[in-house]
């Protein structure tokens, strides 16, 4: 009792000492990055940073910060956000010592104490895992890659043609946002598991993967916004957040369903010798059953929603710009007429779509105006700190600082894209005469898929899907917005867009 009484008597002294220590630490933390300006209070507390994620509009918060405070803005006591292409290229370079920031990347963990290629913090393990998985994303080990994509392009075209075509007698609006999701999920499940989930065939979210994805992503944005990612993910609390295999919704339900598919595959073909898909390739390159589960979940999330968002945004900007619409459709019709694209029901080949300069200008510009993913992908400055050049100025970054990528701001940067950077103009990709500036523009586009040692392995597949889908949608139908006053409803959770009610009307064209 004597000790307790002594502590009680000294309670105000103890409290004052603890407060003084806390204030001293806060002051020290503030002064480390005092040269970087940012929103009020961001240098002292995480409140602004957290509210950005909770707002479900973080990409715009970050853009407004860099617009106001420059190419490097302070958004938290230890967080910076940047639109500097020089700095981002440097950070993601293959030989640099920057590492992933744990509090951000751990959000990609779907099982307690088990990382995937996104959430893995050990750089050596990450590099090895990329090498093991690369073959599964290529046509060399996934022989039916292009034909699988073509199959689902045709399924979507036929779904629209048989169920959703508008005529002079009847308008039949439908949600292209949802159909793009069905398409992207069928493609990634087909090339991943050897057979599609069948969303397009049944015209519904068959296994509730898309519902689970949205629920899980929303939950992740709250975990990030409240600063709980490190404290929760990787602990038993994950089960309370719906990340258990037994959960009925969210990432846990996705994990449970995926585990069943992989278990069945291994029972039927223990050495995966019969398969020619991602699973069989990954298994042959050393991934065990649990690693197959975690990597499959991640590729479903990374491959489906981002591709669907790209298709939506490209179509939205094409539909709202008649000049662009007419020129693109003319290019499509020209290659059909001259035989470069085989008549329907053949789907345009990769070789042909690569030659369509205006098609790709439209795609790049649509993804620039509305990037498919906007997570900040924070990297940590090496312990010894780093000195970098940004817009001709030498800047020192203290060791341990977290530096994030302002995706929306970089893609609207007037220094790179010109005074009309806020407007959709595909021709900028075709008429730019300065080779250095064009190379810089293309580098910004590359960064939408990650960069350097962190570049997305699924990039070639995503671009194949996007190019084929936009071509065939324009070849087979005439389009208009069903609700031009509000084309869609959209929120951004953890850098991924949740889009609903993108209502459009499609009218049959005579197919050449």
UniProtKB/TrEMBL annotation:
The chain crosses the membrane at residues 6-25, 222-241. The lineage of its organism: Eukaryota, Fungi, Dikarya, Ascomycota, Pezizomycotina. Its cofactor is heme. Its main location: membrane. The keyword tRNA-binding does not apply. GO terms for biological process: antibiotic biosynthetic process. Keywords: Antibiotic biosynthesis, Heme, Iron, Membrane, Metal-binding, Monooxygenase, Oxidoreductase, Transmembrane, Transmembrane helix, Virulence. The keyword Repeat does not apply. It comes from Sordaria brevicollis. GO terms for cellular component: membrane. It is found in: Membrane. This is Cytochrome P450 monooxygenase ABA1. Heme binds at residue 456.
């Amino acid at each position: 009792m004597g000790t307790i009484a002594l502590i009680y008597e000294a309670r105000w002294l103890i409290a004052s000492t603890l407060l003084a220590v806390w204030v001293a630490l806060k002051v020290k933390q503030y002064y480390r990055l005092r040269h970087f300006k940012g929103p009020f209070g961001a240098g002292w507390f995480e409140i602004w940073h957290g509210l950005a994620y909770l707002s479900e509009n973080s990409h715009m918060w970050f853009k407004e910060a860099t617009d106001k405070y420059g190419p490097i803005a302070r958004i938290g006591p230890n967080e910076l956000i940047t639109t500097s292409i020089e700095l981002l290229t440097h950070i993601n370079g293959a030989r640099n010592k920057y590492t992933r920031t744990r509090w951000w990347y751990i959000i990609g963990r779907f099982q307690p104490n088990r990382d995937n290629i996104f959430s893995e913090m050990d750089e050596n393990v990450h590099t090895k895992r990329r090498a093991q998985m690369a073959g599964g994303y290529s046509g060399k080990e996934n022989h039916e890659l292009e034909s699988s994509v073509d199959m689902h392009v045709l399924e979507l075209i036929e779904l629209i043609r048989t169920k959703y075509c508008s005529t002079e007698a009847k308008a039949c609006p439908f949600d292209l946002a949802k159909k793009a999701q069905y398409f992207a999920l069928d493609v990634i499940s087909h090339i991943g598991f050897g057979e599609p989930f069948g969303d397009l065939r049944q015209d519904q979210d068959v296994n509730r993967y898309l519902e689970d994805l949205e629920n899980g992503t929303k939950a992740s944005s709250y975990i990030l916004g409240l600063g709980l990612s490190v404290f929760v993910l990787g602990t038993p609390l994950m089960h309370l957040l719906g990340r258990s295999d037994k959960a009925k919704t969210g990432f846990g339900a996705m994990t449970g369903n995926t585990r069943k598919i992989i278990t069945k595959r291994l029972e039927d073909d223990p050495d995966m010798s019969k398969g020619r898909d991602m699973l069989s390739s990954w298994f042959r390159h050393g991934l065990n059953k649990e690693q197959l589960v975690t990597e499959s979940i991640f590729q479903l999330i990374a491959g489906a929603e981002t591709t669907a968002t790209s298709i939506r945004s490209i179509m939205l900007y094409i539909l709202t710009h008649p000049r662009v619409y007419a020129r693109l459709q003319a290019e499509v019709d020209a290659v059909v007429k001259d035989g470069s694209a085989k008549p329907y029901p053949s789907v345009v080949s990769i070789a042909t779509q690569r030659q369509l300069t205006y098609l790709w200008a439209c795609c790049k510009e649509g993804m620039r105006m509305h990037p498919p993913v906007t997570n900040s992908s924070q990297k940590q400055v090496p312990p010894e700190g780093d000195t970098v050049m940004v817009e001709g100025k030498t800047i020192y970054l203290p060791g341990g600082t977290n530096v994030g990528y302002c995706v929306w701001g970089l893609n609207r940067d007037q220094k790179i894209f010109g005074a009309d950077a806020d407007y959709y103009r595909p021709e900028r990709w075709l008429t730019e005469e300065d080779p250095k500036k064009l190379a810089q523009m293309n580098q910004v586009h590359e960064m939408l898929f990650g960069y350097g040692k962190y570049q997305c392995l699924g990039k070639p597949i995503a671009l194949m899907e996007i190019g084929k889908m936009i071509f065939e949608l324009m070849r087979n139908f005439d389009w208009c917005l069903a609700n031009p006053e509000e084309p869609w409803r959209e929120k951004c959770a953890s850098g991924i867009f949740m889009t609903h009610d993108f209502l459009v009307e499609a009218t049959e064209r005579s197919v050449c």
